[in-house]
């Protein structure tokens, strides 16, 4: 039977034998920024799936795939064994975040348990920072649970803005770094500025570039660059529509005298 939060280890930590790994969380969120980055890393790195997480706190549904075959919603953790030039990684990806407040805490506790089981020494959570308008040149805002992380993040290009995000960091990206602080694990949240209206590969690319600097990691970003170019075309089309609407509104306003 499925537990409220059901952690299923496909490989034991000692089988994978990671050395002081860094955990990266990239679950669905604003602009899917974090998810795009984490999914990209899973795609381009030589990873192995080590954990599956099922939960009552995911939406009450199944996912229908090719040929009508269904599967349960789940989140997954992948392990990457480095060649020594960058840290070993645990990458948390998946279908959903919790649909309830209580579930967010229970799932975040589960993610921290997995991190501790694998000996994680640092965590980076990834997400989007919605600004409510189209962003031509996205940048990365940071939040940390340890003052010692501020300077390294600044050197990697992360900006710190007092009191931002004003409403706090909601969901896994925020709770994980908060709970990690209580467990004595250094953690930071990297948020790419985004409109919040659409999936944003351009913002994801900005976050990935910062993350690569922090981890001394070199990976191809070609896929994200292509998707970012497609998004730029879409933004240009939206701007044309907005400008046309604005001109029409001004024209109608000028003709108001004749009505």
From TrEMBL:
SUPFAM superfamilies associated with the record: Cgl1923-like (SSF159659)
Membrane-spanning parts: none
GO cellular component: proteasome complex
InterPro entries per the UniProt record, alphabetical: MJ1210-like (IPR004426), Proteasome_assmbl_chaperone_2 (IPR019151), PSMG2_sf (IPR038389)
Coiled-coil boundaries: 214-244
Pfam families linked to this entry: PAC2
Source organism, top-level taxon: Archaea
Keywords from the named record: Coiled coil, Proteasome
Gene3D superfamilies hit by this protein: PAC-like subunit
Record keyword Coiled coil present: yes
Protein name (database record): Proteasome assembly chaperone family protein
Species: Geoglobus ahangari
């Amino acid at each position: 039977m499925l537990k409220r939060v059901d952690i299923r280890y496909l490989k034991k930590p000692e089988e994978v034998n990671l050395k002081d790994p860094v955990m990266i969380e990239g679950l669905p969120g604003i602009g899917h920024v974090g998810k795009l980055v984490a999914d990209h890393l899973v795609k381009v790195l030589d990873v192995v799936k080590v954990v599956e997480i099922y939960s009552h706190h995911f939406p009450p549904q199944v996912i229908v795939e090719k040929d009508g075959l269904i599967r349960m919603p789940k989140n997954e953790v992948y392990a990457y064994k480095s060649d020594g030039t960058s840290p070993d990684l645990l990458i948390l990806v998946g279908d959903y975040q919790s649909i309830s407040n209580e579930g967010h805490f229970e799932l975040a506790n589960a993610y921290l348990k997995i991190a501790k089981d694998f000996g994680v020494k640092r965590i980076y959570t990834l997400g989007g920072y919605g600004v409510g308008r189209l962003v031509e040149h996205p940048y990365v805002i940071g939040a940390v649970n340890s003052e010692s992380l501020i300077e390294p993040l600044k050197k990697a290009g992360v900006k710190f803005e007092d009191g931002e995000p004003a409403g706090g960091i909601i969901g896994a990206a925020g709770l994980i770094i908060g709970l990690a602080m209580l467990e004595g694990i250094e953690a930071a949240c990297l948020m790419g500025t985004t409109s919040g209206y659409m999936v944003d590969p351009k913002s994801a690319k900005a976050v990935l570039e910062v993350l690569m600097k922090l981890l001394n990691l070199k990976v191809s970003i070609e896929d994200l660059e292509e998707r970012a170019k497609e998004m730029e075309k879409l933004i240009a089309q939206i701007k044309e529509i907005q400008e046309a609407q604005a001109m029409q509104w001004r024209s109608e306003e000028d003709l108001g005298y004749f009505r």
